[in-house]
Amino acid sequence: MPYLLRLFVKRLALGLLTLFVVSLVIFLSIELLPGDVAQQVLGQSATPENLAAFRRELGLDQPAFSRYLDWLGGFLQGDLGNSLISGLPISELISERMYNTFFLAGFAALISVPLAVMLGVVSALYRETALDKTINVVALTAISVPEFFVGYILVWLLAVEFALFPSIANLSDGASLGDRIYRTFLPALTLTLIVTAHMMRMTRASLINLLALPYVEMAKLKGASQRRLIVVHALPNAIAPIVTVIAINLAYLIVGVVIVEVVFVYPGMGQLLVDSVAKRDFTVVQTACLIFAATYILFNLASDLISIASNPRLLHRK
Amino acid sequence: MNKFGSYPQIGRRGFLAGSAALVGLSQMPRAARAQPKTGGTLRLSVNQGGTSDTLNPAEANGSQQIMVGWALRNNLTEIGTDNKLKPELATNWSSEDAQTWVFKLRPGVTFHNGKSLTSDDVIASLNLHRGEESTSGAKALLAGVDTIAAEGTDTVVVTLSSPNADFPFILSDYHFQIMPVGDDGELDMSGTGTGGYILESWKPGVKTVLKRNPDYWKEGAAHFDTVELLLISDSSAATTALVTGEIDAVQSAEYKTLSLLGRDKNVEIESISGGFHPVFAMQTSQAPFNDNNVRLALKYGVDREALVKQVLRGHGTVANDHPVAPSMPFYDASLEQRAYDPDKAKFHLKEAGLDSLTIPLSVSDSLFAGAVDAVTLYREHAAPAGIDLEVAREPGDGYWSDVWMKKPFFTSSWGARPVPDMIFATAYSKGGDWNESQFSNDKFQQLMLAARSELDEAKRAQMYGDMQVILRDEGGSVIPFFRNFVYARRADVQHGDNVASNWSLDGYKAIERWWKA
């Protein structure tokens, strides 16, 4: 598929350009924030003399653009640098957090994506019935409530009242997969409740749209069952819009879960980013933001490629 | 142990129900207390710190760093559970003139790596906070040190540039932890210390795991086999985890949910009178605050009782515009308490030649829970006196660099200090780096210096009493209250008859002082 390959390479190059712009924007934003690392770390105990020594030590007395170029130079050579404050290599700092974030996102996605598509199909199949209405009301209620509140409700119900699951993640080193799943079940469930509605509604809407088309009517006239009508005839044509929505939600599961992390004390990337912004730890913020940006770019790219591949008209252009 | 009884008028039924357990606890006869038991795991949640925290004590500034630091290491001196100075790595200290201090080191103490404690370790650890290149947050505390020298391997002699009778107290500060010097002459800041716990894993911002040091030199300390210290910044998450038994103790409990928490039989709440206090600081070097009448007007214009009741829900004591808390040595209990009096405030405003005063007061909720509420109430209190305080809400981010000591009238907050001199020298002395009110009073300055070189306790008490009067009547700081440390633990986690009040969680030493029944 040379067309897809060409598109992939082109979009990847554009993605890299986007990442560069993102890094510049982040650097400038941090420069605009009041206070620098030295002031944030020393806080109330900062004296002018102390601040100067701190800045000298971290190289903060250099002009802004040369600090950016320094960082960029290292980054391009694959050196993410060290945290300005703790001095730890960023790769070490971020790798575990990243694993945690991807684990939780993957866990939530494994529950929510099949669930959402299934519920979407069911509600399209039985549209305008009590079942359809119930599914919609429940899903829309879950998405309309702020996520921390969903989290608290689940904690109250499943951790305090019935004591089925722990209220905070508190992962220990070398925990088994089973233990990990048990300890992250509540946050994963919270995320599932938040993202399911969007994907479910999109599945339902695109299916219902397709069901009104003449080719579906044709299939109906030749005697296909309602189930076959939807799963075999309509669903393949609905892949493009559904995949787009799934991609957006998967990216959200990785990037937008800081509040859920706080509620369940889950050590993911969001918490690290908030911490680092508060301390103006520029190098950590940069790396974390670039990972987030790259996530969005890759998911978008993937969803576009799948949409095109699923649509022969786009795939075989003249 | 607690100052709960000072405010019996708090009429909330739920609140009293919640506090009943606490009162019962403090009245429990000694014999009923369990003896310390070794074993078990303590899971502790703290709320100050972040991912970038290090084990370098020079950079320590939150409970995560302080508690871990004190589990791993010791100081030369420490504040005991009775709030008195106790020997730690120094067995005794002496001085003829309060200027040259001789510290004898405890014999037979070894670090976790097997190295014996010597005077070299002590000198290197203290020098971390001295010199031009030092970035230590405690640099100012050792600014008066001229030389630190060894006399043999077991004696350290510190010479000060001027006398300071409280110098041994200063060395109990959490920055001055003693670390070993490696073979390369560098300080080992990886967590090796002489403390009751050995570092198993250090993941700042997430979880730190500590294992008991079987060779700990201190007797009757370090009872838990394992300690897990978690950083939980969301107070609801911490409270829920305490209730569900996921953790054993929390550093700070929220006033709003305290009554509900107190109903849980498995949870005990502690409310310990401490020295943490907010300050409404005026820059006394500029108009209108250079007129003491304006300062007095603002001091009479605040209803302290109401603030304690409404902002702290009773978990505190009224303060008297000086920073010496009742739990500190040299606190002068005979000093008359200033009461809320809008008429007197109006009178002093008139004396200053003003009919009314409109002034913004900067504040941020990041300073302490309820800070903005406190200023909003202050505005209501001061209004009848013709003072219009504008509540200037500032972002918590960058407050210390852009608002504190920059605006003419602002809110700040101070943690407890073990002795008055430490807070006087830091925040009220002429030329001090953090003299936030630009306070400059010759008599105060003379007394402060004289009290440092005075070794007669009675005379010192007199001097510190006089200084409290000066700050109350002439200082540029409105100090409304001292806040209690309010924290909670599972009922099976126990402690001795007293708990220290210099910090939360038994002076941040619960890890080595508490045990599991």
Strand content of chain B: 15-25%
CA gyration radius of chain A, whole angstroms: 24 Å
Order of SSEs of chain A, N→C?
Answer: HHHHHHHHHHHHHHHH
Low-confidence stretches of chain A: none
Proportion in helices of chain B: 25-40%
User: How much of the sequence of chain A is in beta strands?
Assistant: under 5%
**Biggest sheet details of chain A:** none
Q: Give the averaged pLDDT of chain B, no decimals.
A: 89
The CATH level-2 architecture of the domain at 277-483 in chain B is identified as: Roll
Instruction: Estimate the helix proportion of chain A, in percent.
Output: over 70%
Shape of chain A: globular
Radius of gyration of chain B, taken over Cα atoms and rounded to an integer in Å: 23 Å
Poorly predicted parts of chain B: 1-32
Annotation field: number of helices of chain A:
16
Structural class of chain B: alpha+beta
DSSP strand count of chain B: 20
Of all protein chain pairs, which has the greatest interface, and how many residues does each chain bring to it? A-B, 48 and 47 residues
**CATH class membership of the domain at 277-483 in chain B:** Alpha Beta
Alpha-carbon distance between the termini of chain B? 21 Å
Task: Indicate the CATH topology of the domain at 277-483 in chain B.
Answer: Dipeptide-binding Protein, domain 3
